[in-house]
Amino acid sequence: MNFLAHIYLSGENDLIKIGNFMADGIRGHDYEQFPLEVQKGVLLHRAIDTFTDAHPVFRQSKHRLHEKYGHYSGVIMDIFYDHFLAKNWANYSKEKLEDYTERFYNSLRENYDWLTPKTQGMMPYMIGRNWLVSYGSVEGIGKILFQMDHRTKNRSNMQNAVQELNEYYTEFEQEFTTFFEELRAHAQQKLAIL
Q1: Are the C-beta atoms of residues 10 and 20 closer than 8 Å to each other?
Q2: 97-102 — which CB contacts under 8 Å span 24+ positions?
Q3: How far apart (Å, rounded) are the C-alpha atoms in residues 43 and 111?
Q4: Please, what is the Cα angle at 72 between 119 and 9, to 5 degrees?
Q5: Pair 85, 135: CB distance under 8 Å
Q6: Which of 26, 41, 83, 117 is placed for a possible disulfide with 16 were both Cys, Cβ 3.0 to 4.6 Å?
Q7: What b-and-e string marks burial along 130-153, b requiring 16 or more CB atoms within 10 Å of the CB?
């Protein structure tokens, strides 16, 4: 899962959301230097990733992309699944996506000193371009994929994956809906024991 899903699956605690959001940049036991709630977010992120990577529905979605995008297919699917979460946000939250993301951006600003340097560097771009809301449109996903492709020095060809998103849109959306219900239950169970 990508940023929006990780944040959403963290519940309402801002520090857990922040830990989950920036967990990819925290290696091994380095998370132990952060406050306990941020640590919980990092551990939740890892549990979500493990569950996602092993799930047969996610693997089915990813398989459609594997031949063309290789090991980047999982990254692309994470972004596609965030698209379906943003697009169908009203099914998962009573709060408007725009309000939800603004609250999250504010919590990043308020907890700036706890952010990793990588997250601090990414923040202005994320907030300025409103990445989390932009996930809701295919055009927004295209821009995100283009930016990610640029970061791989155009080796991944991720910017072309919008073609597959459009081609298999119905299948991807159905798979997301099935998968995300199970992931939500898994994340809630994990949060309860952290």
Answers
A1: yes
A2: 97/132, 97/133, 97/136, 98/133, 101/130, 101/132, 101/133
A3: 19
A4: 50
A5: yes
A6: 41
A7: ebbbbbbeeebbbebbeebbeeee
Residue whose entry in the numeric block shows the structure tokens 């959306």: 173
Angstrom distance (rounded) from CA 133 to CA 21: 15
Give the C-alpha distances (Å, rounded to integers) separating 153 from 67, 78, 129, 135.
20, 20, 21, 22
What span, in angstroms and rounded, lies between the C-alpha atoms of 10 and 34? Answer: 17
Q: Tokens standing for 99?
A: 């309000």
pLDDT tens-place string over residues 148-192: 888 777 778 899 999 999 999 999 999 999 999 999 999 999 999
Q: Which two tokens stand for residue 34?
A: 């952060």
171 — phi, psi (to 5°)? -65, -45
Nearest alpha-carbon partner for 124 in 140, 136, 112: 112
